[in-house]
Amino acid sequence: MSEYKPLNKKQIAWRAAQDITDGSIINLGIGMPTLISNYVNPDIEVIYHTENGMLGMGPAPSKGCEDFYLQNASKELVTIVKGGSFFDSALSFSIMRGGHLDMVFLGSFQVSEEGDIANWSTGDNMLVPSVGGAMDLVVGCNDVRILMNHCTKDNKPRILKRCSYPLTAKRGARRIYTDLAVIDVTSNGLLVREIVECLDFEKLQNLTEANLILDKNWKILKAPNI
Amino acid sequence: MSEYKPLNKKQIAWRAAQDITDGSIINLGIGMPTLISNYVNPDIEVIYHTENGMLGMGPAPSKGCEDFYLQNASKELVTIVKGGSFFDSALSFSIMRGGHLDMVFLGSFQVSEEGDIANWSTGDNMLVPSVGGAMDLVVGCNDVRILMNHCTKDNKPRILKRCSYPLTAKRGARRIYTDLAVIDVTSNGLLVREIVECLDFEKLQNLTEANLILDKNWKILKAPNI
Amino acid sequence: MINKCIYKTRDIKKGIKSGSTILVGGFGECGVPLELIDALIESDITDLAIASNNAGVADRGVAKLLKAGKVKKIIGSYPRSIDSYVVEELYKKNLIKLEIVPQGTFVERIRAAGAGLGGFYTPVGVGTMLAEGKEAKIIDGKEYILEKPLKGDVALIKAYKADRWGNLIYKKTARNFNPIMATAADLVIAEVDEIVELGELNPEEIVTPGVFIDRVYQCKKNYDDLLHNIYVSRHRNN
Amino acid sequence: MINKCIYKTRDIKKGIKSGSTILVGGFGECGVPLELIDALIESDITDLAIASNNAGVADRGVAKLLKAGKVKKIIGSYPRSIDSYVVEELYKKNLIKLEIVPQGTFVERIRAAGAGLGGFYTPVGVGTMLAEGKEAKIIDGKEYILEKPLKGDVALIKAYKADRWGNLIYKKTARNFNPIMATAADLVIAEVDEIVELGELNPEEIVTPGVFIDRVYQCKKNYDDLLHNIYVSRHRNN
To answer: Rounded to whole angstroms, how far apart are CA atoms A106 and B155?
Structure first.
């Protein structure tokens, strides 16, 4: 039996992008999620929200078209597409907290089997605490999806019975995309929908602290070479 | 001793207008207060707020310049002056409740000796109850001034120990302009600043249920013939 | 492709159920979605709770809906008007429930629903009969009452221009409650004077981003001229 | 006549006292009133509580104020940045207090202060360490925490254009917290790129009506070009 091959960050983002439907209004968190927009079906129309006050965020500007006044929540230069709009932070967070986003994709340190998310702090007291809009994003949206490696660099599980890091929100996550699997958070527990080729369920469970359930219609998790 | 002469509505409005200073941001309630703008010193700049969503409300439009889309809170056609702006009702009431108006002039049925205002309901159960922005206007502003006749049509006092009609707000009024007097609501009680000519303090007290105090520097209440 | 524009009048009522709470925009008669109201009247939807600052004038707007027997409850601040005989008759005959809310509280409750808040403390109404039955709280020495969010199943709003994403701008004092109601219902339908191409509305000037809007319907009747004439002749007679 | 424009840099600091709570606009480095901050640094005003979403980058903006030793406390959501060495050093040496608030709660608390509300219930933070010490309440079956208004003695904001009444419009994503902070302080000073004639700003497009603004100061330095160059070169190197 050959060795399984984890997805790289781009492939995880690609897989997440496949779940986005036409007309969706989406917020992409800092880190891996920002890669998602590169892989969305070009035939559909998706509206990106950035919490510093814009809907209709477009791709990074080409050389010569950069504008300091067009930034996203990661403080990167971006563009605005036709139909986009600017607004203040109160309205921007009303959009988030009020449930007006269709999908939110976030990175995370840890997720619990009940969908609790810990993505803003490792509890390191030497770091200046900074939460930003992480909690607002998770609380408002009914369809929060997490992108992260299945394990830490030293191979400790990130999908846990209970998060050990400070929580961002309880019961926030609906789906988790990792380098090894696609897992849904359901009322019955964590349901594994897809696993990378050559990785069996028992091995995946060994890499996961929380209990997993294998969906009877589970599939191979595939992504193009990117 | 000759008979005293009560002020008419225009004269009460004129007297109130004399207290408006340059640069004030003002809301004029329905009824007598709307007359005030006719008598404001033309050499000063005053900004009028209307709670349906405009600052910089101007006078009634001249013939041919009427615009259905330019209305005040009394649903009358108005104009907008240079520097005016439109906004939604949430911001409009934030302006009021948040204390951003300098002065509010309102009509009232009754005022109590502590400055309680009753100006939205006579308690008549056959009338459809309607409060509008009356409570918001009184609560937000530190300088609410009441314009009303000193007594009802059948000569009952309107300045009472306690209002008998449903309250708009407690301790709302700062100054009362009537057809007979100008009275300040102070922590010591109702201080009479001005009385119309030929009306003595005792007679004024007889027309008032609440206790009055005569200011030692009281003046004759005068207004031009209008 | 996103296209929120609907062109058929019969598509307005889709998904609206009897018994719904419906937010209806407008202050007095300015900024009221009259053609969306007509669509409700012509439907078999009934038993509605209408949240609207006013209750219509003469036979127009919300008054027309009341007269058609569609409304069981009005939530608003000022149902009375210079000619509000419809609501007055229903009220005297006890055929309608009224929930009277100070105007600023009314709009703030709607905003709270749209902003995902559970409620807020306001000083407005304290010590009055409109505070009866409401939780009171002293915060930093000042008395407040707790007000809860007011969410619509549906919001019917009026705007000036829209694009196919549902981005909206408004006209003068017809803005009023409309942008706030746009945020606070499961189904939000905007009646507009004009639909423009995507990109034609300046991103700095858009008041309601399309994210809040489900359907956009362009006016077909000429209610504006009718109202203009009524208001101008009243103005000239005063 | 109303004229809120001030022309002398020394007039910025008038009436600002040591120990004040100051709201400072901007998200990251976009929409920060850098010249107003400079005026504080050059003054003898100190011991400030600064409410600002971020805490400056490198030696710029709020970081410059921190470095000058003027700040005892930061209230915000994300003081860390790609180069926030100033706040990091102060934090490690325990020379500054930090109050960390979720970003939406931060702006909503400021809005509540400007809107005259006593507080609001939000679901954000429930079940997390940021809810510790805050009153919880179940409303309609859902858990919320009570958040109190955040009012400034002073607000320093950045806008694009102003007129002499203090009406303001903003530029793109530099709008962010500025219009909300404009409503929520006893003294509000706006730094703007350009002062225009009264009547030049379209009444439909004014974002902040002048009623909220006390002083308008037109930029004299060219911080914009500096920032543009920094951000463009970083962008091109990524």
So the answer is: 71
3-state secondary structure of D139: strand
Predicted confidence (pLDDT) per residue in C187-229, tens digit: 999 999 999 999 999 999 999 999 999 999 999 999 999 999 9
Instruction: With CB atoms and an 8 Å threshold, state whether D180 touches A89.
Output: yes
Alpha-helical segments (H) within C132-237: 178-181, 223-237
Contacts of A99 in chain C (CB under 8 A): 116
The answer to whether B26 and B104 are in contact (CB under 8 A) is: yes
pLDDT, mean of residues A95-121: 97
Q: How far is the C-alpha of D30 from the C-alpha of D39, rounded, in Å? A: 19
Across the interface, which of B72, B76, B133 has its CB nearest the CB of C103? B133
Catalytic residue among B3, B45, B51, B202: B51
Assess whether A3 carries a catalytic annotation.
no
> Nearest to residue B84, comparing CAs of D2, D87, C215?
D2
Distance CA C14, CA C189 (A): 11
Contact C175 B75 (CB under 8 A): no
Average pLDDT of span C14-35: 98
Helices B89-97 & C103-114 angle (0-180, nearest 10): 120
Cα–Cα separations (whole angstroms), residue C187 to A103, A182, C183, C184: 18, 32, 10, 9
pLDDT digits (tens, 9 = 90+) for D210-221: 999 999 999 999
Closest chain D C-alpha to A212 CA, distance in angstroms: 24
Cα of D145 vs its chain's centroid, Å: 24
C69: left (phi over 0), alpha (psi -120 to 50) or beta: left
Q: Give the whole-angstrom CA distance, residue B103 versus residue B101.
A: 6
Query: What are the residues whose beta carbons fall under 8 Å from the beta carbon of A156, sequence distance 6 or more?
Result: none
Q: Select from D87, D91, D174 the Cβ nearest to the Cβ of A69.
A: D174
Handedness of CA C42, C47, C48, C54 (dihedral sign): positive
> Is the CB of C121 less than 8 angstroms away from the CB of D116?
no
What does pLDDT average to over chain B? 96
The pair phi, psi for residue D198, each rounded to 5°, is -60, 135
Q: Please judge whether D2 and B86 are an interchain contact, meaning their C-beta atoms are less than 8 angstroms apart.
A: no
Portion of chain C with pLDDT greater than 70, in percent = 100
**ipTM surpassing 0.85, yes or no?**
yes
DSSP state of C174: G
Residue C52 identity (one-letter amino acid): S
Q: D118 and C144: CB-CB below 8 Å?
A: yes
Read off the pLDDT of each residue in C142-167 and give the average, rounded to a whole number: 98
pLDDT at position C236 is: 94
- Spell out which residues of chain A touch residue C152, defining contact as CB-CB under 8 Å: none
CA D198 to chain centre: 26
Q: How far is B20 from chain D (nearest CA, A)?
A: 13
Tokens of D144: 């919320």
pTM of the model: 0.98
Q: Does D141 touch chain C (CB under 8 A)?
A: no
Nearest residue of D to residue B21 by CA position?
A: D1
Question: What is the per-residue pLDDT for B148?
Answer: 98
CA torsion through residues D207, D117, B162, B173, sign: negative
The contacts of residue D130 (CB under 8 Å, 6+ apart) are: A131, A135, D100, D101, D102
3-class secondary-structure state, position C109: helix
**D149 token code pair:** 């208004």
Which residues on chain C are in Cβ contact (under 8 Å) with D117? 108, 120-122, 144
Provide φ and ψ at A144, rounded to 5°: -95, 130
* Catalytic entry in A51, A66, A76, A114: A51
Instruction: Indicate the burial class of C207 (C-beta count within 10 angstroms; 0-12, 13-18, 19 or more).
Output: buried
Of the partner residues D112, D120, D205, the one whose CB lies closest to the CB of residue C204: D205
